[in-house]
Amino acid sequence: MQQELTNKLQQLYEDALSTCQQGSPADYIPALAKANAQLFAVSIASQQLTTQLGDSTERFTLQSIVKVISFMVATEARGVEEVMHYVDLEPTGDAFNSMIRLESSKPGKPFNPMINAGAITIASLLHGTTPNEKVDTVLDFLEQLLHKRPSINGEVFLSEFDTAHRNRAIAYHLKANGFIVGDVETALKAYLLLCSIEVTTQDLAKMGLFLATDGEGAPFISPHILKITKALMMTCGMYNASGKVAAFIGIPAKSGVSGGVLACLKDATIEGHHGAIGIGLFSPAIDDVGNSVASMHMLKQLADHYHLSYF
Amino acid sequence: MQQELTNKLQQLYEDALSTCQQGSPADYIPALAKANAQLFAVSIASQQLTTQLGDSTERFTLQSIVKVISFMVATEARGVEEVMHYVDLEPTGDAFNSMIRLESSKPGKPFNPMINAGAITIASLLHGTTPNEKVDTVLDFLEQLLHKRPSINGEVFLSEFDTAHRNRAIAYHLKANGFIVGDVETALKAYLLLCSIEVTTQDLAKMGLFLATDGEGAPFISPHILKITKALMMTCGMYNASGKVAAFIGIPAKSGVSGGVLACLKDATIEGHHGAIGIGLFSPAIDDVGNSVASMHMLKQLADHYHLSYF
Amino acid sequence: MQQELTNKLQQLYEDALSTCQQGSPADYIPALAKANAQLFAVSIASQQLTTQLGDSTERFTLQSIVKVISFMVATEARGVEEVMHYVDLEPTGDAFNSMIRLESSKPGKPFNPMINAGAITIASLLHGTTPNEKVDTVLDFLEQLLHKRPSINGEVFLSEFDTAHRNRAIAYHLKANGFIVGDVETALKAYLLLCSIEVTTQDLAKMGLFLATDGEGAPFISPHILKITKALMMTCGMYNASGKVAAFIGIPAKSGVSGGVLACLKDATIEGHHGAIGIGLFSPAIDDVGNSVASMHMLKQLADHYHLSYF
Amino acid sequence: MQQELTNKLQQLYEDALSTCQQGSPADYIPALAKANAQLFAVSIASQQLTTQLGDSTERFTLQSIVKVISFMVATEARGVEEVMHYVDLEPTGDAFNSMIRLESSKPGKPFNPMINAGAITIASLLHGTTPNEKVDTVLDFLEQLLHKRPSINGEVFLSEFDTAHRNRAIAYHLKANGFIVGDVETALKAYLLLCSIEVTTQDLAKMGLFLATDGEGAPFISPHILKITKALMMTCGMYNASGKVAAFIGIPAKSGVSGGVLACLKDATIEGHHGAIGIGLFSPAIDDVGNSVASMHMLKQLADHYHLSYF
C-alpha cells in the first residue's frame, strides 16, 4: 500500500533537499561525476506500507552499498567461520581505500568487509569461477528479493575498471598475504561489477526491510548473519563518519559514493509505518568522507523526529 | 528486590566460570597482576529486580570502564560541541594506547574517548583546576548514582602512576597538538585517579541500568549524551574486539583491564527482568585484547539465550 | 693482469667463508632457495689488475643490484630532473618492499630507486615500449661494459613473475598516484627481467670499477649521474643495514637477495691494486635484512685491514 | 693564518647571500623566529689556514648540530656496543620529530642519533646525574677543542623548554620502551640545554676540521667513532634532504634549525686550503625541511667548483 504523504515527511524532505548544494558528486569516477546534483529521493518500506519522496524511480549504482549484500551472500554460502578466516569484523578509522594496515597489521587480513580490501576479499569468496558467475550469486539474491533482476551499468563499470589502479593494488596486496581465494583479476572484476549494479531507492528500502526483519520472506539468509551484517553497518557502514552516525543517528546504515544510503530499523514508527522498516535514500552530492549530504540530513531529521536511534 | 536464582542463569554462570583459565590477569600494572584469576561475578539490575551471581561484593578498579563515566560527566559539563572540538567519536582499529594516529592523522585530534588519548583529553575537560577537583566531579556523579561515594585504590593508582610513561607520552603529544586543555600533568593524574576508582559488579549493573533508561532518576545527564555514550560503547567499547562484540553479542558494553565489563540493554527480558537492564561483570583473567574471558563468555551466552542483540 | 694471491687476502677469504652458515639462501623465490649455501666468490678489479678468490665464474642473478644499473641507464636517458619528478633520492628505513610510505607520504612518490617501488618506477622510465626493449637498454649498457651480453635466467624470472603479487601491488599503487610512466605490466615485467640478469663476481667487479672511475671507458654515463648513484649506494644500497654499513664499512655498495654485493672504492690500495677499485662478492646465504653474510664479513675485514672507509 | 680572500670565494659568498630571501627563520621556537634573516657567515679551516666570509663572529645556538657532538662524547664514554643497544644507526625518511616508528617498529629503538628521539636517548647516555653534569661533558669537549668554553643561550633554552611538549612526548615514549637510561626529565633538560649552546661559524669550522682529521689534537675521540659520526652525517645529517645532499653535494654535514651547518672534508683543495678541511656556515633563513638556504647554496657551489664530493 502506498502511503499518502504527510506534511511532516514532505517538510523533512524539502529541508533535506535544500542541503544538496553543500556537497558535489564523486569526481574520481568519470561516469559518476556527471550525475545531476539536485536529485534527491527517499523511500520507506514496512511490511504493510511504502512511502516515496522525490525521484524514487531514478536508477543509480550501488557502489559501496553492495558490500552489505555481497557479505551476506558470501557468508551464507561459506559460513561465518570460513569468511572470518579471510576478513575480520573490526572498524578501522582509515580511508575506505587505505592499504597501510594490510602491511602494518600482521598478517594483513582486511579489518572488515565494508572497506575496499575486505570487499574484494569477499568477492573472491563468492561462489563461482568467473566474475559473472560470482556476480550472478548476488544478482540471484537480489532478483528473489526485488522480484526483478537488477541491471549492471556497463558505462560505470568500464569507467571504474579503467581507473582501478588503487583497487588492483589492494587486490594484489591481499593475494600476496593469502587473503584472496583464487584468481586476483577475477575477484577484482567481480567486485567492480557488483559496484555497478543499478537500483532505485525503492529497491534499497526493500533491502533495508529485509535486514530489519532478520530475513523474513525470500531469499534465505541466516538470522545470525543478518545480525552480523547490521552490526557491521553500525560500526563501519558510513565511511569515516560511522562513529558519528552511530552517535547522532544511531541506525545501521550503509552509504555509497554514488549518493545512495541503505538503512534499517528493527522496531520503529514513522507515520503509518510500524515495526521493522527499511529506508532507501539517494542524492548524488556527497560530502568529504563520501556520504550523501541530503540523505544524511534526512536520516538525522527522521531519527530525531521519530526517535529512531537504536540506543 | 533480590531475584531467586534460576537454574538457567546459574548454569550459564558455571559454564562461564570454567573459562577463566583461558586468560590471565593484566601484568603491565603490578597491582593488577596479583588479582585472583578465579574470581567471577555477575550482577543484573532492572528497575524492579537485582540478581547476583558469584563474588558480587568483590571490589576492583574501573580502569577503562571509567572512560564511559568521565565522557558523560565532561560532556554534560561542556556540551557536545565543545567536547567534539577536542575529541572525535570514530573507532580506530588501533591499540588502546596507540600514538601513531596522533601524528599520522592531522591535526592529531584523538579519534574517540574510549582510547587512552581521548580519555586523557576528556580528563582535561572535566571541570576543576586540580586533579582532585576533576576527579570529584566524577565521584559526585557516582555518589548520586550509587548512593555511596566510591573509594580510590591508592596502591593501584601509585602503581600506574609510576609506570605511566606511555600515557605521559600520549598526554604531551596531545598537548603539542592543542588537544589538552590546561596543565598536562593535572589531566594525566586525574585520568589515572579515575582509572583507580573501585566498584563492584553491583555498581556496574546500576551504571548500566542508568545508561539503559536514558538517565532516569538522579544524577542528571542529557539523554542525547547518553545515546552518544552507548553508541561509543557499541563502536569502540571493547578494545580491538569491539566490532566482533557488536557482531556476535550486539550489546553496548565497556571493558577494563582489571576484568570488569559494563553492559546495558534498552529493552530485554532476562528471567524476571523486563525492560531496561544493566549488567555488571567481573573476572580478572583477560584475553589478548584486554577483555575478561569469563565475562565475555557469559555475555555471549546471555545474548544468545535471551535474544539480547540490538540488531 | 691476474694477481697472484697474497696470504692476507686468502686468509680473509677463508675467514669469511666460514661465516656462510650464519645465513641461508633467500626462500621467498623458489629458484633462489635451492642455491648452494657454501658458495663464496670475491673479485677485485683495478685499472691494472684483477684478483679472484673462490667461485668467481659462478653465475647468479643480479636481483636488487640491477637497481644501480637501471638507475644509471634511465637517468642518462631521461636526465636527472625528469627522473626526480618520478622518484626521490631519500633513504627510508622501511623494508625494500614496503608500501606504507606510498600512501602516508603525499603525493606517494617513491623515496629512492633502491627500494622496489622506486626501481619499478625507474623501469617504467627506461626507453622502449615493450619490456624487452626496456631491458635491452640495460643489456646494451652491460654488453659495452663487460664485452659480452649477459643472459637472463628464465627460470628465476618465471619463478619471480609467478609470485610477484607484492611487486604488482606496488606497481599499481604507483600508477594510481602517477609515478609509473606508461603501462604498468610492461614496467613490472621489465623490472623482473632486469632482476634476472645473470652475472659473475668478475662482472660485478668491473661494474664497481666503472663506478669508481666516474665512468672511464665505454659505455658513457655522465659523471654527475655516477656520483648520485654512488651516494644512493652509500645511503640506501644495503637494505635496512645501509646506515650501519656506511658507519662500519664506509663504502658505496649494493646488495641483492641472491647473495651478490657490488662495491666501489674511489682511491684505495688493496695489495697490488691502487687507485679506483671495484669489488664483486657473492655468497647465497643471506642474513635477516637480505645481505650476504660472507660477503659482508669479507667487506668489513677488507675495509678494516686496507683502511677503505670513505670517512 | 688568516687567508686573503680570493675573488672566487667572495663571489660564491655573494651569490649565496642573495638566496637568503628564499627561506625564513624557524618560527616554532619564539627565540629563533626573531633572528636577522639577512645574516650569512662562512668559515673554512684547514690545518694551516682559516678563511672568514661574512658575519663569522655572530653567535647562534647549535640546535640539531649538537647531536653530532653529543653522539661522539657519549659514544667515547660508553663504547659503540653499549650505545647501539639504545640507538640504531639507520636513516629513516621521517621528520626529525616523528614518533610513529617508535611504535610501529618493534622494540621502539630510535633509528639514529640525528633525529630527536635518538638525540634524547644519547643525552641520557652522557655521563653525569644531573642535566648540568651531562651538559658539562659536552662543554668540556668543546672547551678543549675551541680553547674557550661555549656559553648556553638561556633565552633560547627557556623558550624551547616551555614548548617542549613534543620532545617530552618522545622522551616518555622512549622511556616506556626502555630506551632512556635514568630519569626522563634529566635527559630531556640536558638535550635542550645542549641545543642552546652558542657558537660561531669559526667554531663550526674547527669542529669540522676535527672530524676531518679523524681527531688530531685534543680532545680525544677514537677514530672509529669519528668515522661512524661522519657516516651518520652523510646518511642522515641534513634532515629529510640528507639523501639529496649526499647525491648533489656529497659531503658529511649536519644542519640545525637555527641556520647553522657543519661540514667536513677528508682531503680537498679550496684555494689555499689543502687536505682535511672543516667548514662552518650560518644563515638563519631555512627552507621547508629545516636547512639554511644560503648555507646549502654555498655548500653546493663550493662542492661543484672545488670538486668536493666524496663520491
From TrEMBL, chains A, B, C, D:
GO terms for biological process: glutamate biosynthetic process; L-glutamine catabolic process. Substrate binds at S64, N116, E160, N167, Y191, Y239, V257. It comes from the Bacteria. It is an enzyme of class 3 (hydrolase). It holds the Pfam family Glutaminase. GO terms for molecular function: glutaminase activity. Its EC number is 3.5.1.2. Keywords: Acetylation, Hydrolase. The keyword Acetylation applies. SUPFAM superfamilies: beta-lactamase/transpeptidase-like. It catalyses: L-glutamine + H2O = L-glutamate + NH4(+). Homotetramer. Belongs to the glutaminase family. This is Glutaminase. It comes from Lysinibacillus alkalisoli. The gene is glsA2.
